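Protocol step 4 of 5: obtain the predicted structure for the target chain.
Materials: sequence only (see below). No template structures provided, no constraints applied. The aim of this step is simply to have a reference model before the mutagenesis design in step 5. Sequence pasted as it appears in the construct record:
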Amino acid sequence: MALRFISRSGTRLRSVSYSVLRELADSLFAVAFPTSCLLCQCELTEANWSGVCPDCWESLRPWAGAACSRCGLPIASDQVTQSGGEESGGAAGSDVLCGQCRTGEYEFDLARSYGVYAGALRAAILQLKFHRRERLGRKLGEALSRAWVEIENKIEPRGHEPPLLVPVPLHPSRERERGFNQAELLAQGLARGLNRGRRGRTSEASGSVWGRRVRVEASSVRRARPTLPQAGLSLSGRQENVRGVFEVRRPERLRDRVVVLVDDVMTTGWTASACAGALKRAGAQQVVVLTVARATPQFPDAAPSPHHEPFGEPVDDSSRERQ
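Step 4 output (structure tokens):
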């Protein structure tokens, strides 16, 4: 009994000591590096490397409503009731396809987004892209692992090979101007999130366990030329703007592999589709697209909170298309 009492007391003491040290460290951090939350401007009172306070981070919730079963486009529930569920012959919203996917023009196999490009999520993405918040980018990438869970059973890797994460590339001139590729930061965060929980990870589609860590393959695809801003172009103009813009330089690394394309925002889907087409022609077995947000006029950012305004960026992310 005495030994057990000492053991429990020691564990409790270590727990209390850690808590006290953590509070002390947070207090010292706040004094030495006084800063505000990137999204709400409230003072950060504890160590926070992402720069976003716990309340704002909690508000970055994933989309939980109806969505296109192929491209993941968020769909208003009344539209699903009127057309989607009944047309597919299943329960409303369970197998619905958006108009674009009914025509079968996209070259990727599947796409999903963490959330809708509005509110705090939009503000976080703008901070990442235009204020070089690299740690925030990796943390947003880790959040993408939640979107992965939704589609994991539809992935069909061969053998024990994990999927390859490929960030959508910027044109070299654009990357030099910005200093980094936000999609690569997101892919790094996603890889970290997937590898953290990979032990015992099984693909129900193939029945296999990944034998190796998920890795980012950032050098196999490039933009052959810069493109015009997609904003202001018609749907057909956007499609033509990115036609043939992507080239695969190391097809042997991608052949017969499942490739996950990673990007920050998906709007019309033509950029992702063009990149997926290049990967498919190079021999990729399956191409899945994961983005942090999906921009759609069905859910506009009509009333952003005041702390989103200082970023001064339009809802239509035209700047990201000047690549």
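Step 4 remarks: Residues 1-16, 83-93, 200-208, 302-323 have pLDDT under 50 and may be disordered. Strands lie at 110-116, 164-167, 202-203, 208-209, 215-216, 221-223, 246-248, 258-266, 286-294.
Proceed to step 5.
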